[in-house]
Amino acid sequence: CFLYLAHFLEDYKIGVGSLFNYWAAEGIFDGSTIRDSGEDYLEELVRRNLVIAEKNNLRLRLGYCQLHDMMREVCLSKAKEENFLQIIKVPTSTSTINAQSPSRSRRLTILRGKAFHILGHKYNKKVRSLIVLGLEEDFWIQSASVFQNLPLLRVLDLFHVKFKGGKLPSSIGGLIHLRFLSLYNAEVSHLPSSIGNLKLLLYLNLRVAIEEPVHVPNVLKEMIELRYLFLPLDMHDKTELELGDLVNLEHLWFFSTQHCSVTDLLRMTKLRSLSVSLSERCTFETLSSSLRKLRNLESLYLDF
Predict the structure, then answer these.
(1) Helical pair 16-25 and 34-47, crossing angle rounded to 10 deg
(2) What is the pLDDT of residues 80-121, one digit of tens each?
(3) Domain encompassing residue 56
(4) What is the distance, to the nearest Å, from the Cα of residue 70 to the centroid of all Cα atoms in its chain?
(5) How many independent structural domains does the chain possess?
């Protein structure tokens, strides 16, 4: 868990929600809820003075954590020694890119540059984790086959990545080992139906940065292992999603009664946080009736 913090930039405030899901996707813990298990691990790191953590003012639970500068140096040094992670600061020169291409590291963090060259490198076949952070220029993925070079991925975080034509390549469906997929702030307006092949996902964030409505095929219902689901803020008018089979969900954000049946919530009895956008087709009374079995709910946000 400590070495995983080497992924992040200096002085970076690490959101514990994402961190816990990275850990869970890597198989670090099982059993109880991801949040509870993650907090146990993080509190142990804090107790040992390896990590600084601060609580969220609203919920009084751990919200962010950071590494002190000196501990970060220790973390980076140990991660390098264990070949745990490779941090790639991609320059503009293709020759330098080839020189920096990873060989044995199972985890990659890409910090800047047009790094789609790196993603297609032949030595990346065994990569388990790819996280994109702190980009300083446009980060494009132009090749539709790029994901075919990363068949064993468990974690894929594509923060702020741009895709040609706003289309997520259908080759994403080949990453059948994925447990974590984030398209947060990525420029994506069209999701392929092949995304339904990702049946082992625990975490899926579709809160993209595009201003136009997002095309979401009705395949999310097949991801029955999901614990965290963030839907797009705006979807095409004809979008109809069936989510009733997602009975393991613990956190569901941006659920829209315009695109989803409110009765699907009746089966999501493990939900701990829920945000709902109410449309004209659903009254507050209907919503209240669908929430009656959510006895584990801790946070509820309504948007009228």
Answers:
(1) 110
(2) 999 999 887 755 444 333 434 445 788 988 876 555 555 555
(3) 1-84
(4) 28
(5) 1
